[in-house]
Amino acid sequence: MILTPTMTGLASPDPLQHAFKVKSAPHAGRSGSRPINVTPELWQQWWQQPTQAQQRALYIHIPFCRKRCSFCNFFENGANPQRISDYMQQLCQQLMVAANSPFAQSQGFDTVYVGGGTPTDITASEIAMLGEAINRFPLLDNAEVTLEGRLNGFNDDKWHNALEAGFNRFSFGVQSFDTEVRRAAGRFDDKAQLLQRLSTLSQHDSASIVVDLIFGLPGQTMSIWQQDLQAVIDSGVHGVDLYQLIGLGGTRIDRASEKGKILGTDSSEFQADSQTRAQMYAYGADHLESNQWQRLSSCHWRRDARERSVYNSLAKSGIEILPFGAGAGGSIHGHGTMNARSLTDWHQAQQQACTLNNAASLSTPKNVPGMMLTPNPSAKLDAIFKRGLDSGELRLNQLKSQQVNQLRPLFKAWQDHGLAILSNQALTLTLAGRFWNVNMQTGLFEFLAKNPQ
């Protein structure tokens, strides 16, 4: 039996702050898949076959931003209006071709997520066009349809067109309400503007308004973080995600750090370490829950039942996600897919499909450049682990008895280190476990790799 500190965490009188050294990745996972070459004939065949999935989603990627934020390492394309217009025209055309296929029509879609990039940088008419294309798919009656973006530039025309187009959930990347912290991070708008706009949008009775906050931004002290959390409650929004700043390579924060600098505010160069970020998370969880907000996952809370977070919860369950757009990822017939980020290559693939002008090009969306993987043989089991640990409770009856016995030494180590409570029915994460749940997922997959049944 091999157990390492990266699997179990460290013994500590304060596991919230010291169970692991640092959270080094936003997500955890493993794969028994390998890249495959999908021929045009196989690709066409896939879109003519009905799905075997019981639950499905669409993910649509809008890879444009007006500005690169200091914490971002995946900035792709500047928000040039003509480039966006050309992209949206071809994207919506691809969506309409896909929507009419037997594959798309064979099972309804539970949720749609339009991410980026900054999708709200597209025009009001482009939002309407995108909504029309999305509605060609067989959406379930209660489908959650999310538009991601930022509040700056999201005017009333865009808002009303989005509602009329069927969007019923809006996720805004606020990151911090503090004006100085926001400016240092490369964000637009000040605190007063944000609160006023969020309050107005949240009063509409047919949409859920959600914001993202990041804790650990340069210049963001504990006092500022506490004010950020109160601002969420005061704003009237229906849901909030609390994300820890992670030191990813390639960001402006990372490049400044390599030079011994901190991209703080004019009044503070405070930079929260891992222990302080743990305290920030604990304060956020306590403050929201003491104000009767319900925790839906380790990082997501809601004010009321209007916020459902369907896409985020189902995506962790290994459902089928059809990806569209440069840089989009998902799955088709169990095969993992990741479209390449190159906008030029993506456009060339679309134009090639248009010039063919034959039956296949009219009934099958173009297979754009990217990577396709064989089905992961452990996908269903991995989804149980990821969904359970992310929610804070892994129900043991979802696993086979031999799997529980195999994992019991790891689970007991987590319990000994203050990360979880193990019973005959479930493994329940403590507050510390919820903070370190990505590290724990990574450790679990490492344990399974080094201790095969």
From TrEMBL:
Among Pfam families, the record links this protein to: Radical_SAM (PF04055)
Q: What's a single GO MF annotation on this record?
A: catalytic activity
Name all Radical SAM core domain ranges. Answer: 50-286
Q: Which GO terms describe its cellular component?
A: cytoplasm
Spell out where the chain crosses the membrane.
Answer: none
GO biological process, alphabetically ordered: porphyrin-containing compound biosynthetic process
The organism's superkingdom is given as: Bacteria
List the InterPro entries hit by this protein, alphabetically.
Answer: Coproporphyrinogen-III_oxidase, Elp3/MiaA/NifB-like_rSAM, HutW, rSAM, rSAM_sf
PANTHER family in the cross-refs: COPROPORPHYRINIGEN III OXIDASE (PTHR13932), COPROPORPHYRINOGEN III OXIDASE (PTHR13932:SF9)
User: What name is this protein filed under?
Assistant: Coproporphyrinogen III oxidase, putative
**Source species taxonomy:** Bacteria, Pseudomonadati, Pseudomonadota, Gammaproteobacteria, Alteromonadales
